[in-house]
Amino acid sequence: MCGIVGYIGQKSGVDVVLGGLEALEYRGYDSAGLALVNDDGGQVFKQVGRVNGLVDAVNTEHPASNLVIGHTRWATHGTPSLVNAHPQSNNQQTIFVVHNGIIENFAELRERLQAAGYNFTSQTDTEVIPNLIDYYAKQLPSFEAAFKAALGDVHGAYAIAAISTDEPDTLYAARLSSPLVIGVGEQEHYLASDPAAIMAHTKRVIYLEDYDVAVISGNDVDVHNLKHNRHAKPKAELLDYDNEQALLGDFPNFMLKEIFEAPATIRSATLGRALADRSLVKLGGLENVLGQLKYIDRIVIVACGTSYYAGLLGEYLIEELSGIPVEVHMASEFKYRDEPFSRGTALLAISQSGETADTIAALKKVEDYGVLRLGIVNAVGSTIARMTDAGVYCHAGPERAVASSKAFIAQTTVLALIALHLSNGNTKLFKPLLDELDALPAKAQAVLDNAGRIKAIAEKYARHRDFLFIGRQYAYPMAMEGALKLKEVSYIHAEGYAAGEMKHGPLAMIDKDFPTFAIAIDSPLLEKTISNIQEIKARGGPVIALATQGNKSLEQLCDDVIYLPHTMHETQPMLQAIAVQLFAYYIATARGFDVDHPRNLAKSVTVE
Ligand code: M6R
Questions:
Q1: What is the DSSP letter of 540?
Q2: Alpha-carbon distance 344 to 375, whole Å?
Q3: How far is the CA of 353 from the centre of ligand 1 (A)?
Q4: Residue closest to 24 by CA, chosen among 41, 6, 46
Q5: Same domain, yes or no, for 441 and 456?
Q6: Which of 239, 273, 306 is the last residue of a domain?
Q7: Count of domains in the chain?
Q8: Is residue 428 located within the same domain as residue 464?
Q9: Tell me, what's the pLDDT at 249?
Q10: For ligand 1, what atom is nearest to the CA of residue 485?
Q11: Furthest-apart CA atoms within the chain: distance in Å
Q12: Cβ(402) – ligand 1 distance below 6 Å
């Protein structure tokens, strides 16, 4: 989604900001721009499309400045266009603003400003901000006071960076429900909505909190929290971020690279946590809430998209291993429900980015309920990681492709560990599952070694318009995740269904042009899934089956079979995930799509 980069210091701010915008490209965007202030005043550059277009436009003019803000925009209000791209400015072109989030009362503010003589050229909500600052700057003694007064008028969610030609030595920033960090260098400061944008320069960061307003110069940062009316000189924290992992290496794109990281992902999610030799699960992130965890009698999982499907797997895992009842809600729905909540309930938020607006809102909703708030998060230091009482990091490393792959595998692995932890050893599966988690990276590698076969099958089906994914028990959430992956990167209509539901409706769609991807792994339920496959075949529907190595029974029945190594039911999803991810990937590449940047999607959904 939208990205913000800013710089103030001695270096070429233009180069820093352009480099930062390039680092944010993975998030998805439709236009990009920057504004700078120097002795000659202010200047704005914008381009629709890729950041390299902006780089070319800026480099033809070689502007010099030590105070620059930049933005990648993912359209919410108004189409992707030059006029709607950020930075937005006031009528005199002296105040420049970039903004992530949504100003909910922008229409009312625009009317107010129009009545005061202000003109608007864009369809964006953002354009009210520089004009509102301008309006207050004419009445108040300083830009800082005007900036704060403007923030007092806006309702919604925002991360904002602002600069003015009247203040060539100051960068202003503010956040409410949208991430923003200040990077600390030597006599210089950086600003970013995602640390990935500034990691090439510094790993020392100050996290801004909700209602913080930061006044930033090369040497100093002053933070004023408007809600608590508190001033602070915040300390920088060291960010744990591996730049190497964010590079492509020899892979053609991040999606394939990240799918191929599955074995390493399982290893790092379990490292030092799944101690098979000692029959122990050690989750350091939960240690400060061990006392509270003993009294938990219900867990509500909230998440979106792929993380929601991991949550559904978590429901099976936690209920089976620990006996604690679990409910899973889409965070976007959970926010608006009115359900009873007891003190014995824990809320567990699952998020790769740690910045998903709906999941953050779900956590905020229970803020005053006195319930334990837990997180399974991949992005270290992200908003969700910081607002939960305790949690377990996924340790999957940066995930750059919009379609989540390795993070899903890490989330599911962590959920298995949490389920084992909550079981207190009172399940006969405790030791076998720990042993299996140990063996799993090698089995994940075996699935990857079969990528050539998955590619050949994917290419055979690449021109179909519809797809059905079916499975039972643990394979049911995997069917939904398989369908989501295919939709996202290949734009093929796909649905994930519980195999047992086929006769209750979906069977009506089946014909020779409507293939089914059946997850038919060895299990006590296999016979039932085979019956569903037979019903599909009887109606002429092509079937690709995901089967267990060594079980040849599906070869007669199905059109194509992909084999997975034998593993426990509880660890099957991690192997099935690799197969459905590769299947979606190879269909999308066969159709010629940019898998890392699917149309209309963003990596981190920071608005509702
Ligand atoms: O960062 P989060 O895990 O909170 O993101 C949730 C969803 O937006 C995300 O999983 C989305 O569905 C992915 N594009 C799926 O591949």
A1: T
A2: 17
A3: 8
A4: 6
A5: no
A6: 239
A7: 3
A8: no
A9: 84
A10: 16
A11: 82
A12: yes
Q: What does DSSP assign to residue 499? A: G
In a domain, 208, yes or no: yes
Determine phi and psi for 605, rounding to 5 degrees: -95, 90
- Same domain for 79 and 33: yes
CATH of the domain at 232: 3.60.20.10
Find the domain containing 199 and state its range: 3-239
Residue with tokens 């905020």: 364
DSSP H helices in 175-330: 254-260, 262-270, 290-293, 305-322
Distance, in Å, from the CA atom of 161 to the CA atom of 133, rounded to the nearest integer, reads 12
Examine the domain organization and report whether 279 and 416 are in the same domain. yes
Backbone angles phi, psi at 538, to 5 degrees: -60, -20
Nearest CA owner, ligand 1 atom 9: 305
333 and 458 belong to one structural domain: no
**Is the peptide bond prior to 179 cis by the omega test (within 30 degrees of 0)?**
no
Answer whether 606 contacts ligand 1 (Cβ < 6 A).
no
pTM: 0.83
> Are 65 and 129 members of one domain?
yes
Closest by CA to 258, choosing from 113, 403, 125, is 403
Residue nearest atom 11 of ligand 1, based on CA coordinates = 305
CA of 429 to the centre of ligand 1 (A): 30
| CA gap 89, 557 in Å, rounded | 64
Going from the Cα of 301 to the center of ligand 1, the distance in angstroms, rounded, reads 15
Kindly list the catalytic residues. 2, 603
The ranges of the chain with pLDDT < 50 are none
pLDDT at 242: 65
Q: Do 436 and 530 fall within a single domain?
A: no
Ligand 1 in reach of 183 Cβ (< 6 A): no
Q: How far apart are CA 286 and CA 28, in angstroms?
A: 33
Looking at residue 199, its amino acid is M
Domain boundary among 404, 419, 445: 445
How many CA atoms within 13 Å lie on the side-chain side of 154? 32
- Distance from Cα 118 to the centre of ligand 1, integer Å: 39
Is 605 close to ligand 1, i.e. is its CB under 6 Å away?
A: yes
Three-class DSSP category at 53: helix
For a substitution probing ligand 1, which of 27, 259, 306 has the most ligand atoms within 8 Å of its CB? 306
The residue whose C-alpha atom lies closest to atom 8 belonging to ligand 1 is: 305
Name the token pair of 205: 């960061």
Pocket of ligand 1 contains residue 259 by CB under 6 Å: no
Strands 280-281 and 298-303, bridge-based pairing: unpaired
Q: Are residues 457 and 438 in the same domain?
A: no
Distance CA 520, CA 527 (A): 9
DSSP state of 400: -
**What are the structure tokens assigned to 225, written together?**
């929290």
Q: Is 353 in the pocket of ligand 1 (CB under 6 A)?
A: yes
Asked whether residue 600 is domain-assigned, the answer is no
CATH number at residue 532: 3.40.50.10490
- For residues 555 and 453, give the distance between their C-alpha atoms in angstroms, rounded to a whole number: 15
Asked if residue 607 belongs to a domain, the reply is no
* CA of residue 251 to ligand 1 center, whole Å: 22
pLDDT in tens, 112-156: 999 999 999 999 999 999 999 999 999 999 999 999 999 999 998
307 lines ligand 1 (CB under 6 A): yes
